[in-house]
Design goal:
103 residues, mainly alpha, flat, Fimbrial protein, signal, PilP
């Protein structure tokens, strides 16, 4: 689609939708009392009865007994061997993306 055709179609769509936005809640001023009567009738109706709340299910309490074990999120248990762990091969051929900095 060319840009000119797209502009024309958007203008036609805007012109077609715009009249729908110009009218109020009612189509004519004579319908307003009819609408007000309907709203008054709906408000005068009794409210439907509410359903009773469901019975809450009782759950057993749980005693957490693993307090003495280590915290999985703490750094206290990092191995001390650090330098003897696995490391990348410094003599390997570098990938093309490794030439760019990370930041």
């Amino acid at each position: 689609m060319t840009m000119k055709l797209l502009k024309i179609l958007s203008c036609v769509a805007l012109i077609a939708v715009l009249p729908a936005c110009t009218r109020g809640v009612t189509s004519t001023p004579g319908d307003a009392p009819n609408l007000e009567a309907w709203v008054a009738e709906v408000r005068a109706r009794p409210a439907p009865p509410l359903e009773p709340l469901p019975v809450m299910q009782q759950f057993e309490t749980f005693e957490y007994s693993a307090q003495v074990m280590r915290d999985p999120f703490s750094d206290a248990w990092v191995s001390a061997e650090g330098s003897n762990g696995t490391r990348p091969d410094p003599n390997r051929r570098k990938e093309p993306l490794e030439a760019f900095p990370l930041d």
